[in-house]
Amino acid sequence: MIKQLITAAALVLTGSTATAGEQPMTVKQLFTLVENNINLTAARTGVEAASAGIEAARAAWLPDVNAKLSLSYNGNGLLMSREFDEAQWVHIPHLGNSLTLEVQQVIYSGGAIPAGIKLAELGKSQAETATQLTREQQRFLALGQYLNILKLNNGIKVYEQNIALTERLIADITLKYEQGMVLRNDITRYELQLENLKLGLTRLIDKRSILNHQLCNALNLPDGTQVVPDASLTHLQPAGHSQDEWQLLASTTSPVMQQQEIGVKMAEQRERLARSEMRPKVAFFAADNFNGPITFEIPPINKNINVWYLGVGVTYNIGALYKSNKKVKQAQLNTRQTMERKDVAAQNLNNSVQAAYTQLQQNYVELATQQKSVQLAQQNYDVVNERYLNQMALITDMVDASNIKLNAELQEVDARINILLAHYKMQYLAGTL
After folding, report:
1. How far apart are CA 299 and CA 427, in angstroms?
2. CA distances from 117 to 61, 62, 113, 220, 344 (A)
3. Angle at 115 between CA 112 and CA 116, to 5 degrees
């Protein structure tokens, strides 16, 4: 039910009324629908389990209460001298009963209970951070599929336009062939080109179908839904930051680094747990025993007796002095290893941010190059078109100029999408997607 509500809310965000078939979708809507992802659902369940773990750890402060009730049949006793003679039977009341109630409250656990509670709380923080990391991963994965579908849509459009131009060329050449102006081989050459274009179009459509299916599964959308990305994204200009700003942001907000930080704190709490075994345990206790008959008297007394007591007990495991020190040493080494892993993760994140930032700058250069290519292709198209209208150029020259123009425009759009993808990757690395 929750998934359906999230899906409905996401559809309302864009004012879309489409259900099956084509589904227009913005990035904001995409991120909302990612909440339906099964990986994210499993991560949220992990948070719930960790929350229950905190309550279980806190329950260690609650008193232990034990109750025991029993009924028994007592046989007669045999009384004899120390020399094992003069034996005689002693009658003992046959019905026996016993009720024992014991209460124990821990006063001092050597630090084990507080460390256990803190460890459980850190476990919840770790689960929450893992959920955030999963959300970032699923958003970035879905966004990559989403933008690649947008690329493929542009490619399909270019192929369809090229196919239309090639069919027009074949019709023109066929007319000239009937007039005896060209050879049959000319028609065959362009028919082969047409088949290759159709094959290329089919490959793009199939590739889009695969990506669309994967994206719909990730978003938990119904079968048959065709995601239609927001074409206005190609005109979006993302805000720029310096590499140092991205590095600082990633070091403070990245879920990966937050996980490492929590991991260090958890290792420190495990050290406390190991040390707690070398400390005494103090507990308050109280008990009440209701028993009958009284068999420690001769002759036995067929009555019930109630005895109660309370006090404070101290227990100390002397063996921990030469056993637990090994566990403490192991815990210390684990903490040091966790800190070293944190340093490794920080270095890897720094390298990833630097590489992603470099790629982003390269994509800007590629966009400038493609924009220049579009300008030149447009100029070439205008010249060839003018010559074609004045019957100074062949239709093949016109088709070539159109193909160059269309491909240049496609490359420019792809370059813009690549900038968006690179920018979103920077946000993903920084944990702000």
Report:
1. 88
2. 10, 13, 6, 37, 29
3. 80
- Other C-beta atoms lying within 10 Å of the C-beta of residue 265: 17
Is 373 within the bounds of a domain?
A: yes
Question: Does residue 388 fall inside a structural domain?
Answer: yes
* Three-class DSSP category at 64: strand
Signed CA dihedral, 106, 111, 116, 118: sign only: positive
Tokens of 118: 């803190």
3-state helix, strand, coil in the chain (%, to 5): 70, 15, 15
8 Å CB contact between 309 and 286: yes
Counting the structural domains of the chain, the total is 1
**pLDDT by residue, tens only, the chain of 433 residues:** 444 444 444 444 444 444 458 889 999 999 999 998 899 999 999 999 999 999 999 999 999 999 999 998 888 888 888 877 778 888 888 888 889 999 999 998 888 889 999 999 999 999 999 999 999 999 999 999 999 999 899 888 888 888 888 888 788 878 877 777 767 777 787 788 889 889 989 999 999 999 999 999 989 898 888 999 988 887 777 777 888 999 999 989 999 999 999 999 999 999 988 888 888 889 998 999 988 888 877 788 888 888 998 999 888 888 877 888 888 898 899 999 999 999 999 999 999 999 999 999 999 999 999 999 999 998 998 898 788 767 777 767 877 887 888 888 888 888 988 998 999 999 999 988 8
Domain that holds residue 348: 2-36+109-138+232-280+316-430
How many other C-beta atoms lie within 10 A of the C-beta of residue 381? 19
CA neighbours closer than 13 Å in the CB half-sphere of residue 27: 17
Residue whose tokens read 């090994």? 326
Site of tokens 């131009």: 165
Instruction: Please give the Cα distance from 27 to 197 (Å, whole number).
Output: 31
Q: How far apart are CA 203 and CA 326, in angstroms?
A: 63
Rounded Cα gap, residues 295 and 306, in angstroms: 14
115 in a domain, yes or no? yes
pTM exceeding the 0.70 threshold for the entire prediction = yes
Cis peptide before 63 (omega within 30 of 0): no
CA 123 and chain centroid, separation: 16
Residue 23 lies in a domain: yes
Distances (CA, A) of 231 to 7, 150, 224: 21, 7, 21
Cα–Cα distance, 41 to 322 (Å, whole number)? 46
Separation of alpha carbons 181 and 280, rounded Å: 107
